[in-house]
Amino acid sequence: QLQASGGGMVQAGGSLRLSCAASGRFLAIYAMGWYRQAPGKQREFVASITSGGTTNYADSVKGRFTISGDNAKKTVYLQMNSLKPDDTAVYYCNADWVAIVGDAPVASKDNWGQGTLVTVSS
């Protein structure tokens, strides 16, 4: 499971930090990331990080958002600075992993958390 937290309401120019923790038994977590879905829009990619530390960002958040991870805690963070009203959305955590189910490894992509709402007021 993925548990996201840290959303809230902030004024434009402000900052928020999102966290997402994976719970369960894993052989490996290959990558974790964030997507967001604004009202009336499709879900879009925000940022991702691999277990090796390689990061990738959507152009719309480059220079403002920073993704980081703690492999030992199985947690990914998204530091969001200089927030804009256009950043208002439900933010979803995403991960690719090999979980241990029973005694067997099970590879799984596109595992989703429950979402956390970020509201940026102008």
Provide an overview of this structure.
By secondary structure, the protein is mainly beta. The protein is built from no helices and 11 strands. The protein has strands spanning 2-5, 8-11, 16-22, 26-37, 44-50, 55-57, 65-70, 75-80, 89-101, 104-112, 116-121. The N and C termini lie far apart (34 Å). The model has no long low-confidence stretch (mean pLDDT 95).
Defining key terms:
elongated; 63% strand; mainly beta
CA(first)-CA(last) distance: 34 Å
Q: Which residue ranges are poorly predicted, with pLDDT under 50 across at least 5 consecutive positions?
A: none
Q: Compute the gyration radius: what is it?
A: 14 Å
Share of residues in strands: over 45%
Main structural class: mainly beta
Number of strands: 11
Count of helix runs = 0
The amount of helix comes to: under 10%
Gross morphology is elongated
- pLDDT averaged over residues: 95
Major sheet attributes = 7 strands, mixed
Following the backbone from N to C, one meets helices and strands in this order, namely: EEEEEEEEEEE
